[in-house]
Amino acid sequence: MKWSQFFNTSIGKKLLVGATGLFLCSFVIVHLAGNLALLKEDGGEAFNTYAAFMGHNGLIQFIAWGLKIVILIHAVIAIQLTFRNRTARPVKYAVRPGNKTSSWFSRQMAIMGSVLFIFLVVHLAQFWWVMHYGEIGKVSYGAVTEVGNLYEVVWFAFKEPWIVILYVLGMVALAFHLIHGFKSACQTFGLNHPKYNGLISFIGVGFFGIIIPLGFAVIPVVIFFKQIS
Amino acid sequence: MLNAKIPAGPLETKWSKYKSTVKLVNPANKRKLEVIVIGTGLAGASAAASLAELGYKVKAFCFQDSARRAHSIAAQGGINAAKNYQNDGDSVFRLFYDTVKGGDYRAREGNVYRLAEVSGAIIDQCVAQGVPFAREYGGLLSNRSFGGTQVQRTFYAAGQTGQQLLLGAYSALQRQVSLGNVKMYSRHEMLDIVKVDGKARGIIARDLVSGKLERHFGHAVLICSGGYGNVFFLSTNAMGSNVTAAWKAHKQGAFFGNPCFTQIHPTCIPVSGDHQSKLTLMSESLRNDGRIWVPKKQNDTRKAIDIPEEERDYYLERRYPAFGNLVPRDVASRAAKERCDAGYGVGASKMAVYLDYADAIVRYGKIEASKKGQDHASQEEIIAMGKEVVKEKYGNLFDMYAKITGENPYETPMRIYPAVHYTMGGLWVDYELMTTVPGLYALGEANFSDHGANRLGASALMQGLADGYFVIPYTIGNYLADEIHTKPIPTDDPAFVAAEKAVQDQLDKLMNIKGKHSVDHFHKALGKIMWDKCGMARNEKGLQEAITEIQALREEFWKDVRIPGKQNEFNPELEKAGRVADFLELGELMCKDALNRRESCGGHFREESQDKDGEAQRIDEEFQYVSAWEYKGPSSSELHKEPLTFDIVHPTQRSYK
Amino acid sequence: MKLTLKVWRQQNSQDKGGFETYQVSDVSTDMSFLEVFDVLNERLINEGKDPIAFDHDCREGICGACSMYINGRAHGPWHETTTCQLHMRAYNDGDTIVVEPWRAKAFPVIKDLAVDRSAFDRIIQAGGFISVNTGNAVDANAIPIDKVDADAAFAAAACIGCGACVAACKNSSAMLFTSAKVSQLALLPQGRPEHQQRAEDMVAQMDKEGFGSCTNTGACEAECPKGISISNIARLNREFIGAGFSSKA
User: Fold this and answer.
1) Is residue A96 part of a domain?
2) What is the CATH number of the domain that holds B325?
3) Range of the domain at B537
4) How confident is the model at residue B122 (pLDDT cuts 50, 70, 90)?
5) Which residue ranges run through the membrane (chain A) (predicted)?
6) Of the candidates A113, A202, B276, B441, which lies 20 to 30 Å from B286 by C-alpha distance?
């Protein structure tokens, strides 16, 4: 089987979706770790230093572009599979089983993925675009000079209740997507073993499904309440 | 005079000598020879695959939507083989001996010996195909004792042995399909044999989806279409199981052997009402641990648990102290019928007996308690532990019973009653499995075969696969070697045209009756006649009545059956009608055969032929022969007798007391 | 009891089809689901109407022919039960039951509730076998097989090919069916020599037939009448990845 054939099969395509998905899972961990610096009330020193580092390190920039490609691959192939799956049943059932045979999360991957994608576009436009191509104030911290004050941009944005709500909803979508996504990717890679399934489930649901999205969602909420009080 | 073509010489060398002297077809010629296989059960699938592997061009037909659904799939218990893996004294001879004796001395020694001889190779072949037989922790195959034999020679795959063996044969068949050696025709039903110059040269089949008739040529035709138990309407057979292929062959000149030999299985779930469409078998293995009883009082309406121990009649243990609940199938079935007929039956219909696990649960519970060192376990704890053991051994059967009846068999005894299960009779074949029509063969349950008057448990799978994997690949060569110069006969040959027209005429006739009653109406009526008068016990008067009644029913059928829909479409009612039309002819022949055989043997019990204790009485001087019936027109058949000789095993009356 | 049946009627594969409603009375709790259809069909025939076509054969849950999608569930509400083994005590007087055929592009409707599942045969033809000719076998006990593996192979081999997995899957995926055969043969030493080629060929055929892909919802496992586990799908994925990474071409 040539690689071209391999990745043209249904399983080959799912492997691509799974692999890109797992890569994105690892990304959200790193992203959250950095973002937590936003909660530090140091005038943005920690966060802005971190953001400047991420924005100027060559390797990280390379990965960051890679990340965008990964997201696109993940989305494009998933959409392709979804359409194929739709056509596999031209006449729909009149009665459907609801949650009796499968979990709600597992059936909403395409919807939640789409919501996340829209969220991502908004999110990137709001912060990443401004950081790289927009007007942004500069600050200096000792050795670190003239870095963009993204901290201020973020704090300013999260004054707005509807943006906070948007971000929280985005994280709900992330939670729902990952509750099934992580486990599903493992299954696609063939990781299914009675001894480790509990651990996979815990990581998928507990860590990626609850802790990570909660961590992200806490940030705008906390910033919002700090600013109104 | 019928020639069974049993090779001369000592029993042990008949088959090996035959194999080494039989004519062969060279590989280049095999490619030019076409073989038609009807049915894809164990016999058909294994034959079609094996012949294709040899290089013959094979066409395989089944009426089901896939070859994998043939009714061999439903066999539960296991498959016998004289492997002697358990070191308990089994041998080819012992399997041969048990089979001849179990068949009540109405089978051929030569055939049965060959069957025992190839039994081991079947297991090897199936394991090589990936059949997941049960294994011990050491990784070797597990065996159990089955049907009251004294050795452990039964190989099994949980309660789904037939399924696993069939899927093995099916996968071999599908492999040949993918290699282009087999052309598979599913949802096709054979409706007649085409003969050219007295030899079988093809078939007329109906595509069940389009309804169109098709002509297919073959240098030889193999009928592997299973048994005809559905003549009784209610049986453990699948709804589609039918005699049509075999019956059409019979009408084209193939003799029908021992049609009255029917096996009634003692442990089935009883009929629950008029709606009943089929009966479900509960594996015979349940009799290893369960105790069978009825109340001592007639028409006792108390619940089973309210009937005290001393008011229960463990009639098998009472009548047959040596074998108890493990007497052979035919004996157990008749004993149940005797009790129910006498008014001791249980359940709403009163046509059932109890199969009780209460004692077994306590017995296993005590063993478990002692294993765990709990010497002072309470009765409840013992019962709980016992239930666990029973669940482990029979859980799937108990679940099935609970699903069907809504009763919990761990708490109340199961109700069971005998049901038609297997037909030992079938197309008469010689040692080479050829019928009396040259080039027409019959394999598996479709032939009259090696089980005599009664088949032992776990032997049906053995015979089907023996015929398909290890007998026909050799014996068919002996015929086809002389056919290498026969060019494929074009299907516009007058013989094909005439055969198709006859089939078409019969279909037209059926469709044009436009009567008042459904096919099932007639099928049920036939089933009732057969069950009442040609079932577990038969007598002269009843059989004569049955013949008259069947003739009348048949006449009514051809006047008054209603078949909806059209001919050229998917029409399950039309399919059924054709099958029931054939059952209506077969039923009469079965009664004639039963009437002719004025002895009791195996599954055939003539009330006139019993000893003072009511046990079956064989009459060897008069009936030590195979009845082979020749079709001579409607309601007209001529009996030919193939005498049976026993050089090695000497017939004795069976006794289980 | 009295029931209302809404049944999908479709004359043939070209017909558009639609639901018909039937009232059935005198349904006993001891009847099987298919026996209700028998009784209804008997009535339809007597009324001069076309009976409902449906596939069925053994009626003991092993042949895999029966295939009804009942109130949104493949084979109805009972766990690990085929349509033929479903009994009417599952329902109450007055219930309405909607019965549809298996729906998938790869399973075209032949008539009413009967569908064409020959795609499954073709998937098996692509590689669901061990390439051994009759007579080639060594002694059955020559190769000991770990009981755990043998039992797992049996559990996968218990598949009856009914297609409930496809019917239940929101993507009409045939992964459970395909993986059960791949697993059974991959777990046994006899099946090892061609295990990767088998996975590759069977998946290719599965895709070609027009089944959807697996999104691991687990509906197939929940509806499988034989309790085939989706751990088999994981094994198929492993086999397939192995084939992709190590094939010579």
Assistant:
1) no
2) 3.90.700.10
3) 493-619
4) very high
5) 15-39, 59-83, 104-129, 161-179, 199-225
6) B276
